[in-house]
Amino acid sequence: MNKIQEQGIGIQINNIGKSYGERCVLENLSLTIQKGEFVSIVGKSGCGKSTLLRLVAGLEKMNNGTIELNGERLDDLNRYARIMFQDGRLLPWKKTLDNVCLGLPKEKKENAIGALQQVGLKDRIDDFPSMLSGGQRQRVALARALVHNPSLLLLDEPLGALDALTRIEMQNLIESLWKQKKFTAILVTHDVEEAVTISDRVILIEDGKVSLNQPIKLPRPRKRTHPGFSMYVEEILGQIMHKKQRKANFDMLLSPSKEEQLLFNSINN
Amino acid sequence: MKLPNKGVIIPWLIPLVLLISWQFLSWVGAIPERILPAPTQVFVACMELLSTGELVDHVSISLGRALAGFLIGGIIGFLFGLFNGVFRFADLFFDTSIQMLRNIPHLALIPLVILWFGIGETSKIFLVALGVLFPVYINTYHGIKSVDKKLIEMGKAYGLRGKALFFHVILPGAMSSILVGIRFSLGVMWLTLIVAETISAQSGIGYMAMNAREFMQMDVIILSIVIYALFGKLSDVIARYFEEKLLKWNT
């Protein structure tokens, strides 16, 4: 049932729109993602980036437009993809190994053990999720997604709830597994640095549209100290915050108000 | 100082102290025998009834009724809870009617049940089953309805369908609520049985107590009450055992 053997998948998103009742979340959004590419989607919260990911996963239906996977139209659950959620969504009543085995044929249990080994949790096979730390739980969730050898990995802010050190560790882990397995990956994140660290291209979504499509041309493994790194981060952040407008606000704050002016004058006199 | 079996001893301290003071007060004559016979007397009565085999008969008959009623009511309640929780049509079709029936105190049906089934086994089993059905139904239904939607979505995204989704995600998710229903219904089971046996029966512990009243056998009446208390505790222990076994992930 799962078409997951082939490596990487190309995605063609054509003019999709999605609204919940009156509220329009995505509007005529188009995007092409190459086979094996790692794309990050950033944007303010509520900009529709998670919705886009859920549409690609086939968890929700769009109102108009199409999504094509290797030229094949998506109209149900995306069988090429595995999704990793922000809150992990491990089944609390299943031990680590059984969580990874979810939806896996019985004879592939060995693969599940292998996947847990890849994320460095082979010795926690018999523990319940409640006994794991937040970072370990996300690693189990990652193993659960990867054990199916998906040709598309969807990451819905999977590192959002982790502390800074664990995040860096997880970013490295995801990057190395992506290099090794050559799947296509889409990461939704609100952390621009994370996006620049890990992806080939950063997409910014604003007002339901793609407002920035920025390839990151830095050598891997990427270092935050690389001069180009902060340039990319600045540029993307600037676009998100609308720098010009912000600068104007700053100027206003710096110029003294009338009351301050009067105060100044009275002191000087 | 640490006792080796703290968890086993402490819960029984209150019953033990009560028992000793009861015995003591009877002994010094503070409690008249007519009102409350001493624990030793109750124990003697217990031994007598055991030797004639009468006690074993009554207890096994009561246990049989309790179990039969519990199984019938529990299974029906569980199945309805399951179907109404999972299938929208069944929910629409049955739930309103079940909610109406649920609010009738089942013990109010005793006159009707006696007229329908007489005072034989059927009437008791029917009443117990009816009493057990609703708590199991309500808790199964709500347990299934309140399974985390995110987990269900995750299950679907990982290719689970139908039976697999039910057994891996929905049923375990509803389990703690189902067990609450079972624990509660065990209480209802004893309550219903005692009332039914006390009002109309020719055997069983309730009958034994009512029969003893006719002859002013205080010790036998107290014995029946003590037996009910012990069975109540026993069913709680069983429920707890299953909770620990099925919900060990929840610790």
UniProtKB/TrEMBL annotation, chain B:
It is a multi-pass membrane protein. Residues 59-239 form the ABC transmembrane type-1 domain. Keywords: Cell membrane, Membrane, Transmembrane, Transmembrane helix, Transport. The keyword Calcium does not apply. Its main location: membrane. It comes from the Bacteria. GO terms for biological process: alkanesulfonate transmembrane transport. InterPro entries: MetI-like, MetI-like_sf. GO terms for cellular component: plasma membrane. Gene3D superfamilies: MetI-like (1.10.3720.10). The chain crosses the membrane at residues 12-31, 66-89, 101-119, 125-144, 165-182, 188-208, 220-242. Coiled coil: none annotated. The keyword Metal-binding does not apply. CDD domains: TM_PBP2. It is found in: Cell membrane. Belongs to the binding-protein-dependent transport system permease family. This is ABC transporter permease subunit.
